[in-house]
Design brief:
By secondary structure, the chain is α+β, with helices and mostly antiparallel strands. It has ten helices and eight strands. The chain has a domain at 2-51 and 164-296 and 372-466: Outer membrane efflux proteins (OEP). The chain has helices at 2-12, 25-35, 37-57, 150-164, 166-217, 225-258, 289-311, 331-340, 359-426, 432-466; strands at 20-23, 62-73, 85-98, 103-117, 129-142, 265-268, 315-328, 344-353. The strands form two sheets. The chain has a six-stranded antiparallel β-sheet. Strands 1-6 form a two-stranded parallel sheet. It is elongated. Residues 1-6 and 8-17 have low confidence and may be disordered.
Length: 472
C-alpha cells in the first residue's frame, strides 16, 4: 500500500512535506453508499421483501397441467371380457386457480380415441372405434381449515406489509451503515492526530536532549539528567511506532469500507472541531422508524399466528362438480355431444379429514407462539430502549461537548506551562524531573483532547441517527 511507506517516512522525517488527499465525512459517506459492499447488501436485502411478496401472490397463480399418451394393450382380466387388442390415444388438460376466499376452481378436459379388436362377447354391444370427450368444472370451498381463505389472506397481508416497509428497512439499514462509516472516519482522524502528536512529542524530547547535553558541557547538569531524558525519548520513539501501526490499521479499514485505494496520506478536513450543541425539538418515540418497524413486526406476528391456527383446524371442504361427456364413433360427433351437455353428471358433497395426533400441528402452533412472544418482547424492549436512549443520548451529547471544550482548554494551559518551565529549566531554576513530568501531562492532554473531540462528533451522529435525522 502506498501510504504505508509514507507513514514510515513520516515517523522518521516529520518535517518533510507529502502529497495529501483531502477527506471530509461526507466524502466517506458518499463513497460507502455508492461503492461500498454494505450498500450492495442493503439493496439485496430490499429485493428479498419483493421475493416474499411474489411468493405469497404465487399461491393464487393459475396452474396448467396436461398430458398425452398412447397405450397398446393385449392384457387379460378375470372377467374374461377384455378385448384382444386395445389401442388408446389419451390427451387431457386442466386449469386450476386458488382464490383469496378459500376456494379452488378447476376446469378439465379429457379426449380419448380407442381402436379395438373386440371380444366376441361384446362385439355387438359397441363399435370397435370410439371417441370419448369429457369436460368438468369443480369448485372446492374450504369451510374449516383456512376457512374461506382466512389463512391465505393473512399470509398475503403479512407479505404486503413487509414489502410496504421495505423503504423503512432500507433507511434504517442505510442509517446504520452511514453511522458506522462516520465512526470509522473519526476513529481514523483520532489515530492520525495521535501519530502527529507522538511525532511532535519525540521531537520535543530530542530538542530537550540537546539542551541537557549543552548544560552538561558547561557543568550545569545534575546526575542522571541525561539518562532521564533519554529514557523518555526512547519511550516516545516507541509511542510513534505504536501510533503508526494504529493509524495504518484504521486507514486500512477505512479504505476497505469505502472500496477505495489510498495512494497518498489523508488530510481530514474538520472545519469546526467542536460545533455548538444543536437545539432539538421533542420527538415522539412512536414516530421513529425503529418503532414503526417494531409495531409492524408485532402485528405481522399476530396475523401469522392466527393464520397457523386456522390452517391447523380439521379439513372440511364443500365440493361441487359438473361433468359433461360425449361418446361416438366420430370425433366431431362426440365433441358435439359434449358441448350440447346432453349427458351431464352433477355432484355435491362434503370432504373431511383430520390427523388423530399431529406432531407437525403442535410444532406449528409452538413456532407461532414463540414468534409472537418474541415480537411482543422485542416491541416492549424497543419502546423502553428508545425512550431511555432519547434521554441518555442528549445527556451524553452535553457531556462530550463539555469534555471536548474542557480538554482543549487543558491542553492550552499545559502547553503554556511547558513553555514557561522550559525557560525556567534553561535558566537553572527548575529541576529536569519537574519539566519531564510537565511534558508527560502535556502529551496526555493532547491524547485526551483528540479523543474528546472524536467522541463528541460521534455522539452528534448517534443522536441524529436516533432521531432519524442522519438519513431521511
Amino acid at each position: 500500500m502506498g501510504f504505508a511507506k509514507l507513514l514510515v517516512a513520516l515517523s522518521v522525517i516529520p518535517t518533510q512535506a507529502f502529497a495529501l488527499r483531502a477527506l471530509r465525512p461526507q466524502d466517506v459517506v458518499d463513497s460507502v453508499l455508492s461503492k461500498g459492499l454494505g450498500a450492495e447488501l442493503i439493496a439485496l436485502d430490499t429485493q428479498q421483501n419483493f421475493v416474499l411478496m411474489e411468493r405469497a401472490l404465487g399461491n393464487f397463480d393459475f396452474n396448467l397441467k396436461g398430458s398425452a399418451g398412447y397405450e397398446y394393450k393385449e392384457a387379460e382380466n378375470l372377467t374374461g371380457l377384455a378385448n384382444p387388442v386395445d389401442k388408446t390415444l389419451t390427451a387431457n388438460l386442466a386449469i386450476m386457480k386458488r382464490t383469496s376466499i378459500g376456494a379452488e376452481l378447476e376446469f378439465g378436459y379429457l379426449h380419448q380415441a380407442q381402436n379395438s379388436v373386440l371380444n366376441s362377447i361384446i362385439v355387438l354391444a359397441r363399435d370397435p372405434q370410439l371417441t370419448l370427450d369429457s369436460a368438468y368444472l369443480q369448485w372446492r370451498q374450504h369451510l374449516w381449515s383456512n376457512s374461506f381463505g382466512l389463512s391465505d389472506r393473512a399470509d398475503l397481508n403479512v407479505a404486503r406489509s413487509r414489502f410496504k416497509n421495505s423503504d423503512l428497512n432500507k433507511q434504517e439499514s442505510t442509517e446504520t451503515l452511514v453511522l458506522d462509516s462516520l465512526r470509522y472516519y473519526w476513529d481514523t482522524y483520532v489515530a492520525q492526530t495521535k501519530l502527529k502528536d507522538s511525532i511532535t512529542a519525540r521531537q520535543m524530547y530530542k530538542n530537550l536532549i540537546g539542551v541537557v547535553q549543552k548544560r552538561g558541557r558547561f557543568g550545569l547538569d545534575k546526575g542522571g539528567e541525561y539518562a532521564q531524558v533519554m529514557a523518555d525519548y526512547t519511550a516516545s520513539d516507541n509511542a510513534v511506532k505504536v501510533a503508526s501501526y494504529e493509524y495504518i490499521d484504521r486507514l486500512n479499514a477505512l479504505e476497505r469500507l469505502m472500496q477505495d485505494k489510498f495512494t497518498e496520506d489523508m488530510e481530514f478536513q474538520v472545519p469546526d472541531l467542536v460545533p455548538p450543541l444543536p437545539r432539538y425539538t421533542p420527538v415522539k418515540a412512536e414516530d421513529l422508524r425503529s418503532m414503526k418497524l417494531a409495531q409492524t413486526n408485532l402485528e405481522n406476528a399476530v396475523a401469522s399466528a392466527r393464520a397457523i391456527d386456522w390452517r391447523n383446524e380439521p379439513v372440511l371442504d364443500l365440493v361441487a362438480r359438473s361433468t359433461s361427456t360425449g361418446v361416438d364413433q366420430r370425433a366431431n360427433a362426440a365433441y358435439s355431444e359434449l358441448v350440447a351437455g346432453t349427458r351431464p353428471t352433477y355432484y355435491v358433497g362434503l370432504e373431511f379429514s383430520t390427523p388423530l395426533d399431529s406432531s407437525g400441528r403442535r410444532a406449528n402452533e409452538a413456532e407461532a407462539r414463540v414468534a409472537l412472544g418474541r415480537e411482543t418482547v422485542n416491541f416492549k424492549d424497543k419502546r423502553q430502549d428508545v425512550d431511555r436512549r432519547l434521554v441518555i443520548s442528549e445527556r451524553r451529547l452535553e457531556q462530550t461537548f463539555s469534555n471536548a471544550n474542557g480538554a482543549i482548554e487543558v491542553e492550552r494551559l499545559r502547553q503554556r506551562t511547558v513553555r514557561e518551565q522550559e525557560t525556567e529549566y534553561r535558566q537553572g531554576r527548575l529541576p529536569l524531573r519537574d519539566l519531564l513530568e510537565t511534558y508527560r501531562r502535556f502529551f496526555d492532554s493532547q491524547t485526551q483532547r483528540v479523543q474528546a473531540i472524536g467522541e463528541y462528533h460521534i455522539a452528534l451522529n448517534e443522536m441524529a441517527a436516533l432521531r432519524d435525522e442522519l438519513v431521511r
